[in-house]
Amino acid sequence: MAADEQEDEDAIVNRISLFLSTFTLAVSAGAVLLLPFSIISNEILLSFPQNYYIQWLNGSLIHGLWNLASLFSNLCLFVLMPFAFFFLESEGFAGLKKGIRARILETLVMLILLALLILGIVWVASALIDNDAASMESLYDLWEFYLPYLYSCISLMGCLLLLLCTPVGLSRMFAVMGQLLVKPTILEDLDEQMYIITLEEEAIQRRLNGISSTVEYQTAELERELEKVKSKKTNLERRKKASAWERNLVYPAVMILLLIETSISVLLVALNILYLLVDETAMPKGSGGPGIGNASLSTFGFVGAALEIILIFYLMVSSVVGFYSLRFFENFTPRKDDTTMTKIIGNCVSILVLSSALPVMSRTLGITRFDLLGDFGRFNWLGNFYIVLSYNLLFAIVTTLCLVRKFTSAVREELLKALGTCAFKECEPQFVSCSLPCTERCGSEG
Question: Per residue in 336-359, pLDDT tens?
Answer without folding.
Answer: 877 888 889 999 999 999 998 888
